[in-house]
Specification:
There is one protein chain. With 281 residues, the protein is mainly α. It has twelve helices and two strands; from the N terminus they run ααααββαααααααα. It has a two-stranded antiparallel ribbon with strand order 1-2.
Length: 281
């Protein structure tokens, strides 16, 4: 399948929803409204929403059933980038070819914009998820996202990532950080999209393993693409480029093995996994 065309199609779907969901200056202070939108539009590849949509299709439902999860994970992902860029974190001045949120709006507004994006993610998932899939599925998806975004995953992974700058990690520690900081949200995208589409618990368990394995491989692919940068939390630093690529391929194969039985319905999910791990920047 044409992965780029699929990504464009699903990006248009989630962007239209996000355009309506994000508050405007008539609803919140104008600076906050602008800061919230600054990194959401124009977005990146929208890979995490695409995984949510593909997971719904993989279990036999229309992609639209995963819209609430797709939007919510993109909002959480964007909030995490806003906070990662702050002077107290990575202190980045540019993101997606534009000045970062704190550079344009100031550090305090950037912090608050990230907070607001995270809160909106859970509002969107609660309201639209319950509407599309029922309260029980929505609660399960909320739990998936909360766990992926919290101290056991994204936030804890970021803390250990910061620590790696002063205390370099070994390969196992780096994979643990990747698993929490990056893979957990990809796994939540896959599981949440399938959950809203009515997948059974055994299928959700296998999809979670798929998302976790592919998510770590995705971050290792970033390590390879960023090999010339001075990153402490990089598997390339520990294993070398060839070793990191080989590890990513093992994880990709492990993930794909979890969804072998999905047949044609899982085509988009498999194609996205290959793209995520073997992509060029």
């Amino acid at each position: 399948m044409d992965v780029q065309a699929y990504l464009r199609e699903q990006a248009e779907r989630v962007d239209a929803f996000l355009e309506e969901a994000l508050p405007g200056p008539a609803q919140v202070p104008a600076a906050l409204a602008q800061a919230m939108r600054h990194l959401v539009f124009p977005g990146g590849k929208r890979l995490r929403p695409a995984f949510a949509f593909a997971a719904a299709e993989a279990v036999g439902a229309p992609a639209e059933r995963a819209l609430a999860m797709a939007a919510a994970v993109e909002l959480v992902h964007t909030y995490s980038l806003v906070h990662d860029d702050l002077p107290c974190m990575d202190d980045d001045a540019e993101r997606r070819g534009r000045p970062t949120v704190h550079v344009v709006f100031g550090e305090a507004v950037a912090v608050l914009a990230g907070d607001a994006l995270q809160a909106l993610a859970f509002e969107v998932l609660a309201v639209r998820g319950a509407h599309d899939a029922g309260p029980q599925c929505a609660v399960g998806a909320l739990r998936d996202l909360a766990d992926a975004a919290g101290a056991r995953a994204l936030v804890g992974g970021q803390v250990d990532d910061l620590d790696a700058a002063s205390r370099p990690a070994d390969a196992a520690r780096i994979e643990s950080i990747h698993g929490r900081k990056s893979a957990a949200l990809i796994a939540a995208s896959v599981v949440g999209g399938a959950r809203l589409a009515g997948a059974s618990d055994p299928v959700l368990a296998r999809l979670r393993r798929f998302g976790e394995a592919v998510g770590v491989a995705f971050q290792i692919a970033d390590d390879v693409l960023d090999k010339d940068e001075d990153g402490a939390c990089s598997l390339v630093r520990v294993l070398g480029e060839a070793g990191a690529r080989a590890r990513a391929e093992v994880l990709l194969c492990d993930g794909l093995a979890q969804i072998m039985d999905l047949g044609g319905k899982g085509e988009a999910l498999r194609a996205l996994a290959h793209f995520a791990v073997r992509r060029d920047r």
